[in-house]
Design goal:
419 residues; mainly alpha; 2 domains; 16 helices; 0% strand
Length: 419
């Protein structure tokens, strides 16, 4: 392409980025920069980058950003009445960012410049929603996010990425990466539930409860039904939703950790998911509404103690799985899956997928272990809910879990038939 035409297109793209951000700022009457100003600022950024190339002096870019900042600050200081409504900080920072996006675009970072420009516009546009979100966060929620940051950005990079121990299956970095993955999924549901998204509707209560802890959701609502604070139909609906979400969560973990195994994992899990969906549809009309499960229903999934506990369980199961497979073959692996799946599906799921990845387990054995762990978990929750719910919930819960368990068995049969 002709160099002059390339240059013109580069400046046009910079103008488009500035126009987009300026269009959002135009909605704010007190802002001292709108569509025209932001468009010019982006073009100025590209022009400063061009002159920097031509002169070999980075001072041109520095002078450009100083001019942009100074002009906007002077505009706000001249009209002091507007500062009462808008300090101008956001507009000035946005203008500086747009200036450098124009420069980045000139230097060939077009995709990045466009993506950041769109992201900035979205961030500026949803000011009210973001402020409302932050006001709903409690100190406990913020601690959860900070603890997740520690798990991810502080601990993970410090761990060695190599295998240790018997069977060479204990990789500290990979183990903690799985801890981060599970914590991220749980934290998303936990924060959403804490922001009351999950407290005003059966659908969100069940789904978010399943993301955070399907076991806790099952037991809490079984007790609610026994106490008469919700109807049996409403409690069953939340329980079915939570456990259907658990099945989806397992598929998500497979898709992230072992995407090549996802098609066969769908064969195992989808029949149970479809039966659960049918039960949800059947209970929906008669469910009515349900109150919140209470502040103590779910614990913070990013506490260091919780993370260390899951990491330890995952490492032990990983080691036991390799040992059981070496000593007893697939039968030993399935027995371990049945025991460990009683209380936690994530650890045995991730362990099986890890051993599949390093060649210790075959795909059929790994996915069979996953299916056995899910079945074991569903049986445990059915018995626990029937016990916690008393006579009121006993048979409804057993029937509600019976269908997905039969469908899961059919999925397991299909897996071995296809293998």
């Amino acid at each position: 392409m002709n160099s002059s035409l390339t240059l013109v297109l580069s400046f046009a793209l910079s103008a488009g980025i500035g126009f987009l951000v300026g269009l959002e700022r135009e909605r704010k009457p007190s802002a001292k920069a709108g569509v025209r100003t932001f468009t010019l600022i982006a073009v100025l950024g590209s022009l400063a980058a061009l002159l920097t190339d031509a002169t070999g002096s980075a001072w041109v870019l520095g002078a450009g950003v100083v001019c942009v900042t100074g002009a906007l600050v002077a505009a706000y200081l001249q009209d002091r009445d507007s500062i009462r409504d808008d300090s101008g900080t956001t507009t000035v920072i946005a203008a500086v960012a747009v200036f450098f996006l124009g420069a980045a675009n000139y230097y060939g970072y077009r995709t990045l410049a466009v993506a950041l420009g769109v992201g900035m516009t979205v961030l500026l546009y949803f000011k009210a929603e973001l402020e409302g979100f932050s006001q709903k966060l409690t100190a406990r929620d913020i601690r959860s996010m900070l603890q997740f940051a520690v798990l991810t950005a502080v601990i993970l990079p410090l761990l060695p990425d190599r295998s240790f121990g018997p069977y060479e299956v204990l990789n500290p970095f990979q183990i903690w990466l799985m801890v981060v993955l599970v914590a991220a999924v749980s934290l998303a549901g936990y924060v959403a539930w804490r922001l009351t998204l999950g407290r005003h509707g059966l659908l969100l209560t069940g789904v978010l409860g399943g993301v955070v802890s399907s076991t806790a959701t099952t037991l809490v609502y079984a007790r609610h039904a026994a106490a008469g604070t919700v109807t049996v139909a409403a409690a069953l609906l939340v329980i079915l939703l939570a456990n259907a979400t658990m099945l989806v969560r397992v598929l998500v973990l497979v898709g992230v950790v072992a995407p090549m195994s996802l098609p066969l994992a769908l064969v195992v899990i989808v029949p149970a998911l479809l039966v659960a969906a049918a039960g949800i549809a059947w209970r929906w009309a008669s469910a009515g509404s349900a109150p919140p499960a209470g502040e103590a229903a779910f614990s913070n999934p990013t506490q260091l103690r919780t993370a260390l506990g899951f990491g330890a369980i995952y490492a032990v199961i990983l080691l036991l799985a390799a040992w059981a497979n070496d000593l007893l073959g697939s039968r030993g692996m399935l027995a371990l899956a049945a025991v460990s799946g009683l209380t936690d599906v994530d650890a045995i799921t991730l362990s099986s997928l890890r051993l599949l990845d390093n060649g210790t387990l075959s795909q059929v054995t790994a996915l069979s272990a996953l299916g056995v762990a899910v079945a074991s978990n569903l049986v445990f929750k059915a018995v626990a809910a029937a016990t916690a719910g008393g006579q009121t919930m006993r048979w409804p819960v057993l029937l509600a879990f019976g269908g997905p368990l039969v469908a899961l068995a059919a999925g397991m049969w299909a897996l071995h038939a296809l293998a």
